[in-house]
Amino acid sequence: MTDTLKVDKTFTRPVNWITTSFMLAFHIGAVAALFMFGWKPFLVAFVLWWVAGSLGIGRVATHRMHHQNTDKEGDPHSPQDGGFWAHMGWIITGKAMHNKLDSLLAYVPDLRKDKFHCWISEWHWAPLTVLGILLLLVGGLPYLLWGTFFRTVFGLHSTWLVNSATHMWGSQRFMTGDDSTNSFWVAILTFGEGWHNNHHAIPQAARHGIAWYEVDPNWYGIWALRTLGLAWDISLPKLPKFGKAKVTNAAVPFKPVVEETVRQEALGD
Ligand SMILES: [Zn+2]
Ligand SMILES: [Zn+2]
């Protein structure tokens, strides 16, 4: 364990104290929440956890860099540089929370033109602050601690697990040429993002769980919106046929472009 941490990239870089202070404060608040448990504040936290999930430009840019250089030089958060680094080291030493970096902006020419995305990147802290004040006024301290601090910390670690855990532990369905894996427990914590090997194989697809047993609540939500006519232009590329692997969990060679395709729905068997 100590040896693993010694080679972790996190400890080769200066800590970003602004980001780290906020992280520490939120973790302290999250731990404090545990001492003020109540079902109502817990339920508020649960609902907010489910509702939350806005994408800032910084996150989208980092995400694109990760897809272009997965587990290689240039990947902003690969466990190749250490598990702790991939999980949160790159956050507490980096400028990931700072969304104006020119190097990042080059990756998101489309989003820079989008007024809403620019606004939410600049003011990402504002909705959380307003909500925190409301929770404090309406329900008192337990609501604030659960609905803001605990819920945010839980959400952050869940999201970070997609960068750390699903590039370290789990199974590979597709030979994507990187370390990405499918993980049931990360999928549960992230509403489906834990089917991360599937995602690296078919990054454009809105759906992460391919087989019926790959629980994917994000997709169920999108599917419901689409069925109601409230969402459109949803990318669901046809998948290359990956053959009938007789061995369970055997990784399947994956070629992004092949003629023979099958419908995604047909892969459930
Ligand atoms: Zn990944
Ligand atoms: Zn991705």
- The share of residues in helices is 40-55%
Shape: globular
Total domain count = 2
Order of helices and strands: HHHHHHHHHHEHHHEEE
Strand order of the largest sheet: 1-3
Radius of gyration: 20 Å
The number of helical elements comes to 13
- Structural class by sheet pairing and helices: mainly alpha
Report the portion of residues in β strands: under 5%
The unique ligands bound to this protein are: zinc ion
Biggest sheet record: 2 strands, parallel
Give the number of DSSP strands: 4
Give the averaged pLDDT, no decimals.
Answer: 82
| N-to-C CA distance | 40 Å
Describe this structure as you would to a colleague.
This protein has 269 residues and is mostly helical. The chain has two domains: 1-163, no CATH class; 170-262, no CATH class. It has 13 helices and four strands. The protein has a two-stranded parallel ribbon with strand order 1-3. Strands 2-4 form a two-stranded antiparallel sheet. The relative contact order is 0.11. One zinc ion binds at residues 66, 70, 167, 180, 196, 200.
Précis, in short:
With 269 residues, the protein is an all-alpha fold. The chain is built from 13 helices and four strands.
Secondary structure layout:
Layout: H1 2-6, H2 17-34, H3 39-51, H4 57-68, H5 83-92, H6 102-105, H7 109-112, H8 115-122, H9 125-139, H10 141-163, E1 174-175, H11 184-189, H12 196-201, H13 217-227, E2 239-240, E3 252-253, E4 261-262
Parallel strand pairs: 1-3
Antiparallel strand pairs: 2-4
Helix pairs in contact: 2-10, 3-10, 9-10
Bound molecules: zinc ion (2 copies).
